[in-house]
Amino acid sequence: MKTNPGRFFEDYRLGEVIAHAVPRTLSGGERALYHALYPARHAVYSSDPFAQSCGLREAPMDDLLAFHTVFGKTVPDISLNAVANLGYAEGRWLQPVFAGDTLRAESTVIGLKENSSGTSGVVWVRTRGFNQDDEPVLEYVRWVMVRKGRPDAPAPAAVVPQLAPVVVPEALVMPRRLDFTRYDFALAGERHRWGDYAVGERIDHVDGVTVEEAEHMLATRLWQNTAKVHFDATAREDGRRLIYGGHVISLARALSFNGLANAQMVVALNAGAHANPCYAGDTVRAWSEVLERAETSAPGVGALRLRLVATRGAAFELRGADGKYLPEVLLDLDYWALIPL
Amino acid sequence: MKTNPGRFFEDYRLGEVIAHAVPRTLSGGERALYHALYPARHAVYSSDPFAQSCGLREAPMDDLLAFHTVFGKTVPDISLNAVANLGYAEGRWLQPVFAGDTLRAESTVIGLKENSSGTSGVVWVRTRGFNQDDEPVLEYVRWVMVRKGRPDAPAPAAVVPQLAPVVVPEALVMPRRLDFTRYDFALAGERHRWGDYAVGERIDHVDGVTVEEAEHMLATRLWQNTAKVHFDATAREDGRRLIYGGHVISLARALSFNGLANAQMVVALNAGAHANPCYAGDTVRAWSEVLERAETSAPGVGALRLRLVATRGAAFELRGADGKYLPEVLLDLDYWALIPL
Amino acid sequence: MKTNPGRFFEDYRLGEVIAHAVPRTLSGGERALYHALYPARHAVYSSDPFAQSCGLREAPMDDLLAFHTVFGKTVPDISLNAVANLGYAEGRWLQPVFAGDTLRAESTVIGLKENSSGTSGVVWVRTRGFNQDDEPVLEYVRWVMVRKGRPDAPAPAAVVPQLAPVVVPEALVMPRRLDFTRYDFALAGERHRWGDYAVGERIDHVDGVTVEEAEHMLATRLWQNTAKVHFDATAREDGRRLIYGGHVISLARALSFNGLANAQMVVALNAGAHANPCYAGDTVRAWSEVLERAETSAPGVGALRLRLVATRGAAFELRGADGKYLPEVLLDLDYWALIPL
């Protein structure tokens, strides 16, 4: 058979390194589409002179654009037969991606555990994205539940990796030459700086976006993500196309500009859950909670650890009395962002 | 509160200069999206060699792309709480915008008048767009009706600015080195030149475009316009998303290629009314009327003052017996374009 | 009348050369949109370093992107009053198109035959696309049925051109310096090479894409194709917008990555039929059949002649007992692609 049926649980080996196909050169075209697809307004990614005033060579690609590009490459090898995307950990952005850069991706299998049902198992991979100079640009761990292809395939020895519950501030990698000491708050859109955010503070980002089928498919294709549930209305029994979870991440992060305009760069992904599926017609809203504050080694640069929640309901909803995510909650993301002191 | 609630009528002061946030670097990506979003075919904006044969460095960004980019920046400060966008005047394009340019915007409050109801008022601003060298690229006046935040806020002294009913031909700014003496009419798509258009002549642009939600939202986001009525289906009582008026301007202008292919560059916006709201599902058509002709200082370049009307009905409809715009009329725009002699 | 009513059958003269309007400069923006509109993953078009490892200067524009751009230019002169697009032949890509290139098009009328009804006729044109250096980049013959404008216009002498049923392998033009001897199959996404494909072999490309109105209109506008049936829901009696046939070609070709990932470059179009109209809501699938294999003069480069069929039904459907295309079949295309030996 010439076509790729995707890997099944029994096809993964612990320690195996999977080189993902189809490297991708990014340009101003991808950047413009990112602005058309998401209400993204963070100034570092919007303006070359603003980025230069922060010590960067020019405006980089949005950190999530780099993430989606790397993630998309992994789909044919990791999640084509996935039943569920279970979590993220230890995500770090290692250097900015600029127009003209070419990204490729590679994943190492770091954990395997068959489910008690014997019909599926959990696969943990650490994925790294590299640029054309083979420098790493980002890395993250994700784990997915994958169907078995042959029910009688023997279960591998269970190995569950020890993952850091959060990237510690000391492990955050500062973009080279990043310097917020001459940061222009008026041009950036808000006056709130690192010291203005208190741990425990919650911010309702107010705005909402009603999502269309054409939009999420344009986005997901742009990242060369091939999972058929996003594109083929006949793929699922209910006839609905599932929106790529990363589309919801980017929508929520872009909405968070309103209240966190200066939380410019995403440098770590501590954890993330796609709490409920998102469909076209949903109106996505977002709220944030400040989880932690840290200093960094870059001049004028502080770090905020933020919970970013996307919901199709009201702000500050999260879990019900049973401790489970409420059905209105779409995303619960834990990340570090860089913000001027 | 960390989020931007927008300004209310009482928050504006006469003479105040508002620097709008989030500068934007434009590239070939924005140009390509403009061609995907609108049936734009004017050769100066489509082809570098054609633009060079007209004396320009390369194909500039469509003048309306520059306008939307500048306009989008003003929304969070000017029209977030606007009840209505009342008019435009004294708009002039001052130099072309090229790929790689970074635009920012600033507005001066030039008029204030509280409505007799005491619940809202009209704010007049003169907005200027600048490039990365702080050179002005365009300017225009617009006035909007803005809600009051506190009903008891005292009314300011009423100041209504004197605005020119039309930009006089002598005030039109010619793009540097523009020269239509070697203009290639075959490549441009039509043979009609300045002398072929008579004052009073009306042109039915024939074609129609049925608008989709995904399209107007992609466009409006691309200009970083944050007004929630365009994106959030729950923001208005009727559950319909209002299409950004500038989207209708660009649709109508692009449709006007068919009959006005040589009216290449937009250099002034004399007046404009968004006569009725436009919604997804509407099929937008356009017609033009020649209002005035003028010579210019640039070699081979004439100017046409044109009325551009967008409608979801038949051509040449405008006003009913009561003098009001017919419900099918979406836009009534008065502008100057440059065309070969 | 200032607007273009399109040409009617009696307006064409045998041997006439029609220079099409509105040259177009392409950039990374068009490339990014191509990736957003189609699930395109062929590595030569996705990655500059990959293309360079194959001897090319950088990643070219997808061959179909170049085709659509040239095709779009011809629409106002050739197919505005077309009743049907009847066929393609003798299509050849003559050199790659890169970001920054400007394309223009010109067509020669090579055949004319009035239909027996006397109300329409068939027009054959050979279209050539040129870059900014006046070098040809592609050429093809297509024939369309065009309405007569005046029923009493005299019938021209019938001339039906002799067209090659297939571009012979010797006539395929290799991109300059193309070399697949250092081809990286892992990065390209599949291990199958020229020798792995047998004549008569059929491949089900498995995936499907449900098409939205916004998507096909964005695509068709991007190619500056002005045929109103694609954009105006009121143009046809059934109120449905017809999807541009080239959109289906690009969808099917992109889907064929899964099973033909190494059939990188399209170098000839032997024949093509748009078997049935495609509408928004259709879920497009694709299958291929290997028709012929040939060697080429370029190092490490073989050629496969492929039938590419798009369908909204099951794989391997084509014709009914009556020899006619089944109603589920959308496209039957016969082309040559280059693949590593």
From TrEMBL, chains A, B, C:
Q: Which InterPro entries match?
A: HotDog_dom_sf, MC_hydratase, MCH/BMMD, Thiol_ester_hydratase_Rv0216
What is the name of this protein? MaoC family dehydratase
Taxonomic lineage = Bacteria, Pseudomonadati, Pseudomonadota, Alphaproteobacteria, Rhodobacterales
MF GO annotations: lyase activity
Annotated membrane-spanning segments are none
Which superkingdom?
Bacteria
Q: What's the source species for this entry?
A: Pseudotabrizicola algicola
